[in-house]
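[step 3/7] fold_predict: job queued, chain A
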Amino acid sequence: AVTRMLERLTDPDLQLHIDTLLDAAPGLMAATRTGELFGLAVDEVQASAPAPVGAFGLLRALGEPDVQRAVGFALAVARRVGVRLRDTTTLPARTSP
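[step 4/7] structure written:
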């Protein structure tokens, strides 16, 4: 059992997988933090049903600094996703069946 474990620990494929995971860690942490912020905001909004907003209400809301910050964030993410979609060498993550 110890020999098998040592063989697995010294397998070059394992090192490659560990390196890939460590390289991805900062991005995963940022995505987790963003998801947490989004989830908390959704929970807060769901606690008290927001009033419907029309076109003029939306335009007024765009004058609020917090809304501007959120819209800026969403646009920056959309731009980065667009760049990655344009890059044919970047493929979305796949899960094996």
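[step 5/7] annotate
Helices lie at 2-9, 12-47, 55-61, 65-86.
The mean pLDDT is 83.
exit 0
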